[in-house]
Amino acid sequence: MEEINYLLIIVSAVAAIASPGPATLAIAGASMNHGRYFGLYLAAGVLTGSLFWSTSAAFGLAAILHGNAWLFEVLRYCGAFYLLYLALKSLRSAFNASTLHLPKMQVTSVKGTYFHGLLIHLTNPKPVLFFGSLFSIGVPATANPSELLSVILVVGLVSSLVFFGYAFLFSHERVRQIYLKSKAIFESVFALFFGVASIKLLVSKAGG
Asked: Does the keyword Transport apply (predicted)?
């Protein structure tokens, strides 16, 4: 891999970030229980945590992979199998009961809501694993700082659209009901995204 695979990065990021998890469900719950205003502040906190992990993964892994080509290959395959694991997890969720349990949270101030979102993402192992695999499978080991920043920007934009989108959408009762009725479809789409990203990585590597 000599160039940054932006398509793979975007597809993987959309599937992983938009899939139901502690952060997205907390944003949805805050928006429905306390209104869009608090939902947006929670989303801002989650986004800050996401940018922190993304930046750490980009520059931390780049420094290590430059001098350890074998580790780069290991991480590439670990990343591919991690995406495959997420695909199977989403597929299993699609066949489960269609009820979505949204977490309730105590809201005292917008500042507290922001830090609640930040802590959710900083203490969640999912983004740590995801960003580590994302930069190892979609970014070449020879990428320079400006290229790494471009990837961080792209992933940050995707994260912003997803997190703030959750806050806007789930502040409407009708959207919530539609999601609950279509949970299997949404989860199946997430599984497809993860699966395609994983298989594309393995096939391109095998053929290269």
From this structure: no
